[in-house]
Amino acid sequence: MLYGTPELASADKTVLGEIEDMRRDLKYRLAESHRWDGQFRRQLQARAIQGSNSIDGHRASVEDIESIMFGEEPLEASAAVIREIAGYQQALTYIRHLSLARCFRFDTGTLNALNFMMIGHHQNNSPGTVRPGEIYVRSATGEVLYEGPDAEDVPELLDELIRWLNVGDLEVPSYVRAAMAHLNLVKIHPWREGNGRGSRALQTLVLGRDQITTPEFSSIEEWLGEGRTTYDYHDVLGEVDRRRWSPHGETLPWVRFCLRAHHMQAQRVRRRLAEAGEVWLLLGEQVDKERLHTRCVAALYQVFVSRRLRRGTYQADESLSQGQAARDLRELAARDWLTPYGETKGRFYAPGPKMERVKAEFAARIEPLRDPYEPASA
Q1: Total tally of structural domains belonging to the chain
Q2: Are residues 261 and 312 in the same domain?
Q3: Per-residue pLDDT for 110 more than 80?
């Protein structure tokens, strides 16, 4: 028996409707191709990877994650964290392909494959295979926060989850089904490691298969990995069953938590997408004014959305030779758009004085996101 899908209250249906409105708006805006699309999508994926891994204690900057995605050596992340990030990136790339596959059914093999991609470098934890014994989730002090179901029950529970993923509750809104897929997999806790990341990835895959939007736009992993939200995430999971597998618990608080996360993340992505167009246009005007090559806008945009830019990233984005990319970046530094740091492979470019002014101008205009469950202020 799995945790059951709850009935939504009127407030939840209102929030769900607002999420759908934002989703349709995003799909409409994304239907038209823009020069910044590739960088924008990469940033979203990097932030999702950062969020999900930070929940499990594997912390890396967005800039280092983008370097790993490009096959470059990151500047700050440790070798251990690099392996975790690279594994999760591979799993999310696979999810992106599965979301578009014409022939697809959920099966246990797919879930195990995702787990192997994520933690295959931890051979002592039997990656990609169901755990052979009991499992406990513990706090930093050793307190047991959750005890998974008996190991002998896990194969049957996984089979039940797979059946439900393929044919269960198909009339339920996709955001709710995805939340319940996440909840049931993390509560089954079928593997010795990677259960949280695997469950968050499954939530994204369910939404991707339902064509909500592409995985990088439907994921809430960035939101879950931030500050207080991470504590709230663990708290609401604990509320469902009081620390033991108990599929009779109330699941509406969990679904409501996920709907709020989707709403808040959708607000953020919609704001960023609108900002991207405005920023690109502004930077294009500045490049024309200073008689720089138009491709330099891509370098400036990357520095606008990140703390730094590396030559290899710009070179790959614009399909340039090493010499062309290096000359452009030197020129942008000479014009005070960029500030260079480091040498050889460790060299990167941070915002220069002119870019700092642009960033400050846009930062001053950012308004707080609206909690959809909070009453509107008078």
Answers
A1: 2
A2: no
A3: yes
Quote the CA–CA distance of 276 and 28 in Å, as a whole number.
15
Cβ atoms of 3 and 250 closer than 8 Å: no
Count other Cβ atoms within 10 Å, centred on residue 14.
Answer: 14
* Residue 90 in tokens: 């591979």
Domain extent, residue 111, equals 32-265
Q: Which amino acid is at 117?
A: M
Please count the other Cβ atoms lying within 10 Å of the Cβ belonging to residue 62: 18
List alpha helices for 31-129, DSSP H. 37-55, 62-69, 79-100, 108-119
**Encoding tokens for residue 195?**
């259960």
| Residues 123, 130 contacting (CB under 8 angstroms) | no
Strand partners, 19: none
Rounded distance, CA 332 to CA 321, Å? 17
CATH number at residue 258: 1.10.3290.10
Quick check: is 345 in a domain? yes
pLDDT > 90? residue 28: no
Q: Tell me whether residue 25 is in a domain.
A: no
> What are the two backbone dihedrals, phi and then psi, of residue 244, each rounded to the nearest 5 degrees?
-140, 155
How much is the pLDDT for 376? 62
Whether pLDDT at 217 is above 90: no
Sign of the torsion angle spanned by Cα atoms 235, 236, 239, 240: negative
pTM > 0.90: yes
